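Onboarding guide, step 5: your first structure request.
Type a short instruction followed by the sequence, for example:

Predict the 3D structure of this protein.
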Amino acid sequence: MDATWGLFAAGFRHQTSYRFALVSGLLTNTFFGLVRTAVFLAVYRGRGEVSGLDVADAVTYVWILQAIFALLWSPWIHELPTRIRSGEWTAELIRPGSLLGRHLAYDAGRTASLLVLRAPVPLAFAAVVFDLRLPTDPVGIVLLTLSLALAGFAACCVRFLIGSIGFWTPDFRGMFSLVFGPLYLLSGFVIPVEFFPEPMRTAATIGPLSALLRSPVAVAGGRDVAVALALQVLWIGVLVLVCQYVLDRATRRMVVFGG
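The system replies with C-alpha cells like these:
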C-alpha cells in the first residue's frame, strides 16, 4: 500500500511540474468551451429543450466536458505504447508487485493533478458567466467530485487498453486513429448521448464509456445520481479485470525488437 501511494504521489508531482502546459491547457479549454457554448446556444434558440435537455443542461455538459477533457484524453496517452515499442516496458516485468497496479497508481496520480489544478478553473469561470446546473449543497458537491474522480480512474483504464495496442503492433498510431473516432462519439465527447437515436442512446447511457462523461454530467444535474455512480463503479471494476486479462495475454507473447 505504501508503494501504491508513493507511485500515486510521484505521478501527481510529475504532472504538476508542467506549469506552462497547465496554463496553455486552461486557455485552450476555456476557448473551446466558449465556442461549443455558442454552438449550443444557437441550437437552443427558440427551443425550450432538445431530447429532454434544456439549455442549462447543455451548457453544463459543455463545461464539464472542457473541465475534464485532459483527464480523460491526457497529453501523455502515447507514452505507454511508445515504451512498449522501444522495449523500455520490459523493465516493469522484473519489478516487484502488481505490474498493472503500479501503472494505474502512477497514472491516477498524474490524472489527479489535472483534476485538482486544471478542472476547477474552466468550471468556475463558466459558473460565473453562464447559468449552469451544478450542485450547490455540500452533499451534491461531494458526489460530483467523487464522480469526476471515478471518471478519471476509468479513463486510466481506457488509456491502458488503448495503449496496449502497442503489444500487438509497432504501428500503434494508425490504430489510434481508428479507435478514437468511435470512442469520442460513443462517450459523448462530440454531442451529448441524449441526442443519439435509439437504441444507440441506451447503449451509450449504460455502456462502459458512460463512466467517462455521461455519469458526471448526470450527477451534476442531479439526474439519477445513484444509478450514475453505480454504473461508474461497476464499469471500473470490469475495466480493471479486462486490463489485467489483456496484460496477462500480452506479456506471455511480448517480443522486444533487437533484444
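Each response can be followed by summary notes, for example: The chain has a mean pLDDT of 86.
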